[in-house]
Structure formats: C-alpha cells, structure tokens
Structure to design on (97 residues):
C-alpha cells in the first residue's frame, strides 16, 4: 500500500513527544505509505506518511488513521471528504506489536 492521498481533518491533541514541526496540520494533503493496527493503542489503526517521518519518536511512530479523510475531488472549487473505510484496507494492514 503506497501513496494514498488524504487530507488531515483532525490535528488536535498532539502528543508531547512529537514536536510541532513534525505534526500534521488540518486541511493539508498527505500521502499514506503504511497502515497498521496498533495493539499498544487499544488496537486502533495508524498510518505512516510520506511527508512526515516520526519513526524515531516511539511510541508515537504512527498517526491515528481517523485523523485523515480521502478527498473525492468531485468539485473544482471545493473538496468532498470521505472518512477512510478500514474494511477496504484490511488485506493490507500490518499488526504492530
């Protein structure tokens, strides 16, 4: 799974362990390069982004998937957002221990 374009819809509650300059910004476009089920985070889903590498900031090495939506790109002057449906990604999800 690589290069899925998404838009950040929730940049709230930045963990203290992640510097502001390495945090997502609402309204900005990013590209998901990996999705994983985070067993240490109540089995929530997380993702890695092409634009921001936080691998060295464990345990915060994934962004929660719910922070992003896929742009449907239906209108030229505005974008419709569709929440990410994890069921469509289940075959490609990696369980993070």
């Amino acid at each position: 799974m690589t290069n899925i374009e998404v838009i950040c819809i929730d940049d709230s509650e930045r963990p203290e362990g992640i510097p502001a300059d390495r945090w997502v910004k609402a309204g900005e476009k990013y590209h998901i390069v990996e999705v994983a089920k985070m067993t240490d985070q109540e089995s929530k889903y997380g993702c890695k982004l092409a634009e921001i590498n936080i691998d060295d900031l464990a345990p915060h090495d994934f962004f929660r998937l719910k922070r992003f939506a896929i742009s449907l790109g239906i209108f030229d002057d505005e974008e419709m957002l569709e929440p990410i449906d994890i069921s469509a990604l289940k075959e490609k999800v990696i369980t993070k221990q």
About this structure: The chain has a mean pLDDT of 80. The longest strand covers residues 29-38. DSSP finds no helices and seven strands in the chain.
